[in-house]
Amino acid sequence: MAEDLGTPWKKLDAPVPEEEIAWVDKYWRAANYMSVGQIYLRSNPLMRSDFVDEQTGQTRDFGRADVKHRLVGHWGTTPGLNFLMGHVNRFIHDHGQSVVFFMGPGHGGPAGTAQSKLDGTYAEIRPDITDDEAGLQKFFRQFSYPGGIPSHFAPETPGSIHEGGELGYTLSHAYGAVLNNPSLLAFAVVGDGEAETGPLATSWQTNKLVNPLTDGIVLPVLHLNGYKIANPTILARISDEERNEFFRGMGYHPYTFVAGFDDEPAISIHRRFAALLEQVFNEICDIKWRALAGETARPAYPMIVFKTPKGWTCPKYIDGKKTEGSWRAHQVPLASARDTHEHFRVLRGWLRSYKPEELWNRDGSLRPEVTEFMPEGDLRLGANPNANGGLLRHDLRLPDVHDYEIDVASKGHGYGMTEASRVFGQYTADVMRLNFTNFRVFGPDETASNRLQEAYRLTDKQWDAGFNADPENDSYLSSTGSVIEQLSEHQCEGLLEGFLLTGRHGVWSSYESFIHVVDSMVNQHAKWLEATVRHIPWRKPIASLNILLSSHVWRQDHNGFSHQDPGFVDLLLNKNFHNDHVVQIYYPADANMLLCVGQEAYRSTNRINAIFAGKQPAPTFQTIDDAQKELQKGAAAWDWAGNVAKGEEPDIVLACCGDVPTLEMLATSDALQDLGLKVKFVNVVKLLSIQNAGQNDEALSDKEFSELFGTKVPVLFAFHAYAHTIHGLIYERPGHDNFHVHGYMEEGSTTTPFDMLRLNEMDRYALTAHALELVDAKEFADKIAEYRAFRQEAFEFACANGYDHPRFTEWCWRDVVGQDNSAAAMSSTGGDNEE
To answer: Tell me, what's the pLDDT at 6?
Structure first.
């Protein structure tokens, strides 16, 4: 559980003091000035008339030369965010409440950096940004500038936890953050453009999946400024009544706050919002206290509709066109401020409207009254450890994987028929048991389908959306569970990300083909990790994002072609540059290897671990100890599966990556050995271990790669996903021209396991025929024809009978104790299994 800060859920006994309301206005003006300055100014940050030009050494007035050549940034959402941050700071100061500010409109990056500069946390990570004129100039210049910082609320900014480079995840991250975090208030600002995205639209429902007793509270604030980049927003154009009914239907109690559309004095606006925030927080405290008193009815959680003009406080008209309250305020309203005196004059007046002389001393230092009512210590928005989750992360207590081992040592390689992901689920349930408030399982209605249901022996699914009178239809549902299911991959990903970013651990599972739903979301998380790993040492490592991908491409007996797509791996490979190592890709061949992979994944930090594993009954080939040795390097020769002595040159190397390809390649090895060929067998569990060594300093060295695969003989490689992925990984490797890769060929249907393999040239008969062609096509011509003919025969058998040919289904590896080898099943004539 995350650490508590301050004294949470404390009401005020009196109205907000007037001096604090006046302070919020100072904050707002300072933050607005700094935000405009970041977008526009490269020098003379306080518009002095006696500024010393750094290039000429001459004294001059504020002029067009002080404006950046290239204007980049987003003003439209920023002043509203500055307003909200000012009020949240006052609120934290008065209540001692731990708050994380989730900025859905990530374009408002200037607001986030201004906030951390004002609360002092920016100086702690950037001592070069000093509290003087030179520091302020550097602060302005770096924004969206070569060698500077990004324009979004990026990981480089203290207090950021949700960059918002891609919209849609504010609420899922916020709700993930408050899970098992009962003292945390997530102040989640949702942009009204963001509110139109699918992920955000469904994340409103998360209030039915949290418990006010054991979890924190999310306060959604819909930032309704009316426009996107070029169009109005839907929620801004419907009536107040319709919008409020929508949110009431979602289970919220909406409060609407409108400001900026008339000449109401700023102090009056601040006074009204401060009172509203207190009213809303009082309601939140009541929810918390009623939960502590034992009330179980789901509350209507408050939310705020914050309706202001887009670009609030900027010039109302520019070049005769409406700007404030228009889509024209979205990015840079004065695009020619350096090039034309008219635009510069407007910019100068805009900056002066914030009265910077009342906020900064002449030397460029902030006046003390500007930070008078800021929170202190870890309660500052920029310092809250929940926004730097590695500060709160503790290593998991993990059970011994040997306790779950399938007995291969005494039973033989290829023993039994085990659902690998079910064994992984048993291990994961015990991980949860040992780390109950620190580990969660998420899934889109498929936790049991993906064989992780062992968790239900320990906990229920967390649910607060009503219960059926017939408990038989509500199995494993309660308001206190630690498994969350919602039929939205975005929600699974977002909730887990929020949980991890605030210092905890977890895993979510998905059908392999539908993980693509969150391609861009995974991409954004990878970018967050990449930025952190490369150059943000003050962000401490967070637990890895673990994804189990089951119901994979090779076993879609019920679902067919629509559920067959192994291409998520290619997105992940795009993230493995600069040796950041923010992704790891696992293809465990069996249950014991999957256990070892799970242990490694749960121990890792700052990574996205994609684990591709089947859920259908399959043999187990390695002991835990052998699997752990292979996992260290990522690939290994399985000497027991080949027949070459050490140092002996094989006729062919058989390689595989993935559980089903491994099984098919073992059957291929069996057949080739029966034909007298010398075979070396190699299994790959970490796909990135074979990547070109020049691109990955954790991959096998070229020497190790050559020792494993050889450089002189053909390599037949069976890969779980698309064949081009392997070729792309090894194009610089010694002997890469010897590789012949079989993979998924975008063929499939609702059919039998063998036929699925046959359609994609992945079945053992196609692999064996290809191997013989590579060794000596002329010598083995008859055998090659025999195998290819049997493929058609086996297909016709399946069509006639509705199940696969016994020669396919009854084969097992040759050294399994108590099981017939059935090697003759590889032949189309003769043998124990011939009918």
So the answer is: 66
145-163: b (≥16 Cβ within 10 Å) or e: beeebbbbbbbbbbbbbbb
Q: 171 with 200: CB under 8 angstroms?
A: yes
Residue 230 burial (C-beta neighbours within 10 Å; 0-12, 13-18, 19+) = exposed
Flag whether pLDDT at 820 surpasses 60: no
Domain end marker among 338, 359, 388: 388
* Domain that residue 132 falls in: 18-388
Coil, strand, or helix at residue 534? helix
Distances (CA, A) of 291 to 214, 286, 298, 389, 481: 9, 8, 9, 27, 16
Residue 835, in any domain of the structure = no
pTM (two decimals): 0.94
- Half-sphere exposure for 555 (CA within 13 Å, toward CB): 18
Looking at the 3D structure of the chain, how many domains does it have? 3
Residues 6+ apart with CB under 8 A from 81: 103, 105, 108, 111, 112, 189, 223
Q: How far is C-alpha 496 from the geometric centre of its chain's CA atoms? A: 8
Contact predicate 682/655, CB 8 Å = yes
User: Regarding beta strands 652-657 and 679-684, do their DSSP bridges make them parallel or antiparallel, or are they unpaired?
Assistant: parallel
Distance of CA 298 to the CA centre of its chain: 29
**In angstroms, rounded to a whole number, what is the distance separating the alpha carbons of residues 346 and 352?**
10
Tell me how far apart the alpha carbons of residues 699 and 297 are, in angstroms, rounded to a whole number: 54
Question: CA 710 from chain center: how many Å?
Answer: 38
Residues 645 and 611 in one domain: no
The stretch 662-689 carries a mean pLDDT of: 98
- Position 553 scores a pLDDT of 87
- One domain for residues 429 and 304: no
Domain boundary among 586, 617, 648: 617
CATH of the domain at 735: 3.40.50.920
Query: 635 and 682 in contact (C-beta within 8 Å)?
Result: yes
Question: What is the Cα–Cα distance from 524 to 608, expressed in whole angstroms?
Answer: 11
Instruction: Write the DSSP symbol of residue 484.
Output: E
Least confident of 162-166, 277-281, 571-575: 162-166
Cα–Cα dist 74/521, whole Å: 22
Residue 713 near residue 776, CB atoms below 8 Å = no
User: Across-strand partners of 608?
Assistant: 545, 583
Confidence category of residue 821, pLDDT binned at 50, 70, 90: very low
For 748, phi then psi, to 5°, come to 175, 175
Q: Please choose, from the candidates 415, 817, 409, 414, the residue with its C-alpha nearest in 3D space to the C-alpha of residue 626.
A: 409
- State percent of the chain over pLDDT 90: 85
Could you list the beta-strand ranges (E) of 129-216. Answer: 184-191
139, two tokens? 């602060």
Same domain (yes/no): 600, 676: no
The backbone torsions φ and ψ at residue 800, rounded to the nearest 5 degrees and listed phi first, read -80, -35
The CATH number for 562's domain is 3.40.50.970
Max Cα separation, the chain?
100
Dihedral sign of CA atoms 73, 75, 80, 83 in order: positive
Amino acid at 352: R
Same domain, 380 and 425: no
pLDDT-based confidence at residue 603 (cuts at 50, 70, 90): very high
Please state, rounded to an integer, the average pLDDT across all residues of the chain: 93
Short-list 296, 378, 418, CA closest to 99: 378
Q: Is the dihedral of CA 770, 775, 780, 783 positive or negative?
A: negative
Least confident window among 38-52, 141-155, 194-208, 601-615: 141-155
Q: Are residues 368 and 430 in the same domain?
A: no
| Claim to verify: residue 444 and residue 382 sit in the same structural domain | no
- Rg, Å, the chain Cα set: 31
User: Which range, of 113-127, 547-561, 678-692, averages the lowest pLDDT?
Assistant: 547-561
Regarding whether 440 and 366 lie in a shared domain, the answer is no
Residue 348 lies in a domain: yes
Q: 170: pLDDT confidence band, cut at 50, 70 and 90?
A: very high
